[in-house]
Protein: Cytochrome B
Organism: Imperialibacter roseus
Amino acid sequence: MYEILLFTHSWLRWVTLILFAVVLFKSLGGMNGGKEYLKKDKTLTTSLIGTLHLQLLIGLLLYFVYSPITTTAMDNMKIAMKVGAVRYWAVEHISIMIVAVIVAQIGSIRVKKTSVDKKKFKLQAIFFGIALILILSRIPWSESARLFRF
């Protein structure tokens, strides 16, 4: 089960990043071009938020149930905090990812409550831009084997 969840979490990252790119591109265009916020914009945003929530759910399962790194770290957090690679997975990765999902969710809620199209696009660009920066900062880019699991 661990390998399946890890594989899914790894590949779903790319779907999430592509959705972020599309939503941000459309948000910047809508914000600057005076476009109407259409049903397809709402669908893209909903898809992004759903994908983020699925990523979070899989990540939490890995973190609390299946990951040998985090389950070992939980046994002795004091020692885990002294080892950079263990601290990254036990604290830094999950903390920032949770914050990113919260930021994106708040943005999504604010967009739904706004009636002005230009403001919807602007709120999306701001909140999803911040969430994307947070996510990009915690993806293990230096570990190429983790980027594309087979």
User: Anything to note?
Assistant: DSSP finds seven helices and no strands in the chain. Residues 2-147 form one domain. Helices lie at 2-33, 39-66, 68-75, 77-80, 84-113, 117-138, 144-147.
